[in-house]
Amino acid sequence: MNKKIKTPAVDMLFDAVLTLENQDECYAFFEDICTVNELLSLSQRFEVAKMLRQKKTYLEIAEKTGASTATISRVNRSLNFGNDGYDMVFKRLPEDK
């Protein structure tokens, strides 16, 4: 865990996220707390991570997601040297998601 982001405010935000019960509630909360571009960036990174796990090339990922090679590289670094958060979530998601 990155101690730089471990603050009471971040704890409160994560506690709030953990209260969300379904996708509609997620949409309502995240549309209020994030800009459209922030949400799209987060979802793009998640899609990039999924495609990297599927062994897609940077070119394939860039073409499908519109992500820059810098973004793809950052996500790849998180997958390889991060806190395994992506892997934890991917294991919990149904295969078709």
Q: How is this structure best described in words?
A:
The chain has 97 residues and is an all-alpha fold. The protein has 2 domains: 1-33, no CATH class; 41-96, Trp Operon Repressor, Chain A (Orthogonal Bundle). Helices cover 71% and strands 0% of the residues. It has 6 helices and no strands. It has helices at residues 8-18, 23-33, 36-53, 58-65, 69-81, 85-92.
- Please report the number of helical segments: 6
Helix content bin: over 70%
Order of helices and strands: HHHHHH
CATH H-level superfamily of the largest domain: TrpR-like
Classify the beta-strand content into a percent band: under 5%
Oligomer: single chain
The overall pLDDT, averaged over residues, is 95
| CATH topology call of the largest domain | Trp Operon Repressor, Chain A
Alpha-carbon distance between the two ends: 26 Å
> Overall 3D geometry?
globular
Poorly predicted runs are none
**SS-based structural class?**
mainly alpha
Main sheet record:
none
Strand element count: 0
How many domains comprise the coordinates? 2
CATH class wording of the largest domain? Mainly Alpha
Query: Any idea what the radius of gyration is?
Result: 15 Å
Write the CATH architecture name of the largest domain.
Orthogonal Bundle
